[in-house]
Design a protein that fits this description.
Layout lengths: L25 H16 L4 E3 L9 E4 L11 E12 L2 E5 L9 E5 L2 E7 L5 E7 H14 L10 H14 L3
The chain binds nickel (II) ion.
């Protein structure tokens, strides 16, 4: 396994629409393993492939938040098939380190995807899980959570980012 370089806001790859995965092979599984190592190292709970420069429709999550008990979830070619409710909560992103802001998201989602082996599955998520899925799916469409902020908050964020963007 190898740690990958996380791309920061401003890197054009984060604005690209990721392409569907057509083949689940060893190369893709190696990418998943590398993404997992990168995510755990950065202490994130989710990571989308374009955050490490790969424009593939793939993201990973680990919602367990428990020390020493990882539960990696892999979503290949994910789609939200149902969504309900609205809730506003704090959000952050490994591509925008050090910042967080409240974003409105659906409270509950039903997601359809393929797992690491290419097997289709459906998963119903709420709370943090539902939020994370919507955040990661946004990444695959070239959207970052700060895009959802109000005009004023966006201006404040841009000023903050100018000073704090990692070199
Ligand atoms: Ni993110």
């Amino acid at each position: 396994m190898a740690k990958l370089k996380i791309r920061y806001l401003g890197d054009p790859v984060l604005r690209e629409k990721a392409q569907p995965v057509e083949e689940i092979d060893e190369d893709l599984q190696r990418l998943i393993d590398d993404m997992a190592e990168t995510m755990y190292d950065a202490k994130g709970l989710g990571l989308a492939a374009n955050q490490v420069g790969e424009t593939k429709r793939l993201f990973i999550l680990d919602l367990s938040q428990k020390e020493g008990k990882p539960e990696l979830l892999v979503f290949i070619n994910p789609e939200i098939v149902e969504a309900e409710g609205k809730v506003e909560e704090e959000e952050g992103c490994l591509s925008i380190p050090g910042y967080s802001a409240k974003v409105r998201r659906h409270a509950k989602v039903l997601v359809k995807a393929l797992d690491r082996e290419g097997k289709p599955f459906e998963m119903e998520l709420e709370g943090l899980g539902a939020r994370a899925v919507q955040h990661e799916l946004d990444h695959l469409n070239g959207i970052l959570y700060v895009d959802h902020l109000s005009t004023l908050k966006k201006q404040l964020f841009k000023r903050w980012w100018k000073k704090h963007r990692p070199k």
